[in-house]
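Notes from hallway chat w/ T.B., transcribed later so I don't forget. T.B. wanted the structure written out for a chain they're using in a teaching module, and asked if we could keep both sequence and structure tokens in one place. Agreed to drop them here.
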Amino acid sequence: MNTKALFFSFATSLLLAIPVIGGSAIVTPVQAYDGCETCDRLWYQRNAIYARKGYCFKTRRARAVFGRRCYPPYGSLSRRERRRVERIKWRERDLRCRRMCR
């Protein structure tokens, strides 16, 4: 993800973290976005990290998106990449992605 996209993502998440009062209802971040679209984006971001490292995907969905290519280092991630994957997983858990969208 380039710097501009990363900044936009960060700025957007800050804006969504602030509840918006509209009439008598408060719009939460999960309501502000289409939850499944957000979950799909997170899934793609997480798996793209592995795909760049030659991970051998096992699910049909991942193979359809990233292909069957496998090559060294076969999904071994750097410390920075592992931290990024963990942050994405935490966000997926916060949004209850598996239960809501599958």
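Follow-up for T.B.: The CA atoms of residues 56 and 69 lie 7 Å apart. Might be a good example for the class.
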